[in-house]
Amino acid sequence: MLSYICLNWVLLVLFTGSTVSELVVIGEVGQDVTVPCHYSIQNRNDITSMCWGRDRCPKSKCSRPIIWTDGWRVTEQHSSRYQLKGDLQRGDVSLTIVNAREADSGIYCCRVELPGWFNDQLINHKVVVKKARISTASPHTYTSEQTSAPGSTSESSSTVTRTWPSVSASEAPQTASTPCSGSSDCLDVAANLQNTSVSLHIQQHPERGLYIGIGSCAALLLILILALFLT
Predict the structure, then answer these.
(1) CATH of the domain at 84
(2) How large is the angle between the packed helices 183-204 and 209-230, nearest 10 degrees?
(3) Would you say residue 65 lies in a domain?
(4) How far apart are CA 36 and CA 38, in angstroms?
(5) Which residues, in sequence order, are bridge partners of residue 134?
(6) Residue 230 burial (CB < 10 Å; 0-12/13-18/19+)?
(7) Which PANTHER family does the record match to this protein (predicted)?
């Protein structure tokens, strides 16, 4: 009966093995990714060897081992990108993957070799290394503002558009195509030109209408005197 119980216990241990936990670690390409692993140390005698492997933890040792330590220092190292940066003598055997790549994604096994049969501490980690996110920010429009010095008065610039009065064909100055037939015709043409010029000038500058009116009267009077003198 006792041998039967012992056989069942041995078979149970063989088939179940050590307790294995599994964690997920997510990192980005180009960054250092730390895969955690710790074991308890009460005194110097508890310091022990361990290994990291690129696969699930097997019944013993590590499959595809990448780094080994005897508990005091690193004894084997598959690549300089795999490092143990924690305090080994305090049980910190976390794996640091330097400058991670997408190819580093996969299952990692942390196996701490503890004394006793089937007593090793096993942790499987699923490492996922993703590409770094590229932020696509919407374009910004920057408006520069000009501020005046304290105490000064800033005035906004304005555009002043002046519209001059249009002149019809009947009001436009007419140029005689033929020479004057007589002194009276020349006087009429001169008077017409003078009146048209005065009218346009008054329309363009209404504020000066009074002065222009007086000047035009004097000019007309002078022309009449000259006409009388010529005749």
Answers:
(1) 2.60.40.10
(2) 170
(3) yes
(4) 7
(5) none
(6) exposed
(7) T-CELL IMMUNOGLOBULIN AND MUCIN DOMAIN-CONTAINING PROTEIN 4
Residue 122 lies in a domain: yes
pLDDT in tens, 109-129: 999 999 888 899 999 999 999
Rounded to whole angstroms, the Cα distance separating 47 from 52 reads 16
**185: region left, alpha or beta (phi > 0 left; psi from -120 to 50 alpha):** alpha
Whole-angstrom CA distances from 86 to 10, 57, 121, 129, 220 are 36, 21, 18, 21, 112
Residue 230 maps to a domain:
no
Is residue 204 within a helix (H) or strand (E), and if so which, with residue range? helix 183-204
pLDDT class of 214 with cuts at 50, 70, 90: confident
Asked whether residue 95 is assigned to any structural domain, the reply reads yes
Q: Contact at 8 Å (CB) between 147 and 153?
A: no
Domain with 102, as residue range(s), is 21-131
What is the pLDDT at residue 29? 96
Which percentage of the chain shows pLDDT scores above 70? Answer: 57
Residues listed for the chain: 231
